[in-house]
Amino acid sequence: MYISKRGMRILDGNQPLVAAHYRCASDPWHPESNPKGYINFGTAENHLVFDLLKNRLNASPDIREHHTHYAELHGMSDFREALASYLTDYTGVKASAEHIVTATGSSAILDMLMYALCEAGEGMILPAPYYAGFDHDLKTRVQVEPVPAYTRPEDGYKLTLEVLQQALLHAGKRTIKVRGIIITNPNNPLGQTYDRETLEMIVKFAADHKLQIVADELYMNSVFGSQPYVSLAEVAAEAGADIHLVYGFAKDFALSGFKAGLLHSTNEKVLQVVRELAYFMPVSNATQQILINLLRDKDFVKHFTDENKRRLKSASDFTHALLDKAGIPAEPTDAGFFVWMNLSKWLDSETFEMEFQLYNFILEQARVNVMPGQFFHNAEPGWFRLCYARNEQMLETGIERIRTALHRLDEARLTIDPDSQSVSESE
Ligand SMILES: Cc1ncc(COP(=O)(O)O)c(C=O)c1O
């Protein structure tokens, strides 16, 4: 049977994060019933707040007859109004319902937005390390080229004008026309927020080079550290620039399974294209109703958000303390669900091959999934992302398993046998 070339191209692309997630899900750790199971610190999900959400989500979503029929496929007006009000409250910029398109998750939004902004083969700059799913969202269907702008550990991963200019230069050498820049603020995988000065620099750089700005602010309400969240929307508005803001329920509301995301854009043409495409991936009316009920209770949202931040901070502090005790260095965390840790001293040589072997070793020997920096296009090998929004018992068990596995490498001065992914004596 003939299968299209574009179909086959999709099969070629692999999503290592997704593969590891399902592997862990097939044999998950449980302290009593499956103490040897996989511990998944690889997936960016928040497991700390279901008790807060449970009653609210199970309250009747008030389904009326019209909800059972076709509604506006880019989001019912009630839903978009509730979302606009939420965005206005938390970004500091006036948002409006007519500038919003909703779809089944932020990945769907990014896929449609790339369709509107770029031709196939054109590029978007992404400060690296960046969220691994962007490769998939940009390339899979619309064939947009990610152009990494490499920030470096020795500079504290600071995003500078030089870093962005280098990326443009590099794209030019690859004869890629760059159409825009995607900023993830707060950042995944670094767990850090951008300061106002950096955001101003980004807006100016984009204006100077006539680039579109996409702000992925999925973690805007998961900020708890010393560096506060400032929305790129606010900084762009002050400079009179347009941006395309991407948001969703997967992170700040811990509702990744609800698959609901949004675009807020002030460009009417872009909105028209994305509204057309949203026909293929609308959020179901029942899900919209549940989320409307949630958003309209502003006191609940405020209480939930504050408590979520408190729990994230506590889990982050707990994780940093455990890593410290285990002798594992890590960058400070201000936001998100991530600790960005440095395992480079356990690499026999500073190569991405070695990093990949260490990743497999930890996955198979410790049965813990932590994602290697290469999946996020980190400039140097040895860094790993640990998603810590888990209960303390799981954090203790998982980090102890990692510590023991790394200790075995230290103790016996072992190397990792790439074929068997097991441990063998080097000399
Ligand atoms: C920065 C960022 N953008 C987008 C997504 C995808 O979100 P969704 O599940 O809403 O498609 C993720 C998920 O991890 C993310 O971290």
Automatic annotation (TrEMBL):
Keywords on record: Pyridoxal phosphate
Stated name of the protein: 1-aminocyclopropane-1-carboxylate synthase
CDD domains for this protein: AAT_like (cd00609)
InterPro entries: Aminotransferase_I/II_large, Ethylene_sulfur-biosynth, PyrdxlP-dep_Trfase, PyrdxlP-dep_Trfase_major, PyrdxlP-dep_Trfase_small
Gene3D superfamilies documented for this protein: Aspartate Aminotransferase, domain 1, Type I PLP-dependent aspartate aminotransferase-like (Major domain)
Listed Pfam families: Aminotran_1_2
All copies of domain Aminotransferase class I/classII large, residue ranges: 49-402
Organism: Cyclonatronum proteinivorum
Keyword Protein transport included in the entry's annotation: no
GO molecular function, one term: pyridoxal phosphate binding
Biological-process GO terms, alphabetical: amino acid metabolic process
